[in-house]
Amino acid sequence: MALLSVAILSVSCRPVTNFSDPEEPLYAGNYSNETPEFDGPLKVVTWNIAFAEEIGEAIAELSENEDLQGADIILLQEMDESGTDTIAQTLGYNYVYYPASIHSRHDRNFGNAVLSKWPIVDSEKLILPHQNPRNDQIRIAVRALISLGDIEVPVYSLHTETYWLGQRSREDQIKYLTDQIDPAYTYVIAGGDFNTLTPGSVDALEDRLGKAGLDRVSAGAGQTVGIGDIGVTLDHIFARGMSPIDTGVPTDITASDHYPLWVDLVLEDKI
Q: Order of strands, edge to edge, in the sheet holding 120-127?
């Protein structure tokens, strides 16, 4: 949730229903018609589609925008199961989706998803530490293990808490994520809405994920949210064992208060 409007802040005070079981609810589908042969590069998109309210428009923008179309992996936040399934089925992706809670804004499920053109062979929900002090809402990361032929890549779609939670507790959420990343995997992708409102919080994020061997491959892409005349970069993509070829933020997007963020990656040992 990015826009700091009075309406959203007032809703955030109302209690939510959390899904604290790390194994459920789980929603999944397999709509990729054929498994492409992986020869690189790999296009990754992350997008917070605000409360999954403009799914038809989001599908149009994902399929028609030149920077977004044909993405290999899509990381989504603030989704419900219906919107996730509709995007995956319409555009031909396999997916996993876990809700974190039933949000009080719309009384629908609220969580993260990973969509992939390749098979998803395993998944899990990571419940991040600490709850929003105003409504006790939890935040999560969704991990999908994606099979690129003989290469397995754990991919994380993350949505950390807003600044209602103190900075130290927010840093705990990132540390928890990095502690779960298996060092045995050569290649890792982690992206999503990190709610980094200040340059200092971006630096702290880079430092923490850097300790797990992940670089901010979307650095320099641009601001992902406009709040009045002010732009901020809340969304990021990190990777281990991969280097960016290009990255960007399409700003001619209207389906959400966030702009989608994309990056083209190549495996470092394939360069």
A: 120-127, 140-148, 151-159, 188-193, 235-240, 215-216
Residue 13 lies in a domain: no
Q: Which amino acid is at 116?
A: S
Distance between CA atoms of residues 159 and 27, nearest Å: 18
Asked whether residue 4 is assigned to any structural domain, the reply reads: no
Q: What is the DSSP secondary structure assignment for residue 64, as one 8-state letter?
A: H
Reduce the secondary structure of 153-210 to three states and give it as a string: EEEEEEECCCCCCCHHHHHHHHHHHHHHCCCCCCCEEEEEECCCCCHHHHHHHHHHHH
Distance in Å from the first CA to the final CA of the chain:
37
pLDDT tens profile 220-267:
999 999 877 789 999 999 999 999 999 999 999 999 999 999 999 999
How many domains are there within the chain? 1
Taking a C-beta distance cutoff of 8 angstroms, is the pair 44, 245 a contact?
no
Each residue's pLDDT tens digit, 98-125: 999 998 888 999 999 999 999 999 999 9
Residues in Cβ contact with 218 at an 8 Å cutoff, skipping those fewer than 6 apart: 191, 235, 236, 237, 238, 244, 247, 261, 263
* Assigned domain for 74 exists: yes
Query: Residue holding tokens 């397995």?
Result: 152
Helices (H), the chain: 6-11, 55-64, 81-91, 167-180, 199-210
DSSP SS3 for 85: helix
CATH of the domain at 187: 3.60.10.10
Residue 111 lies in a domain: yes
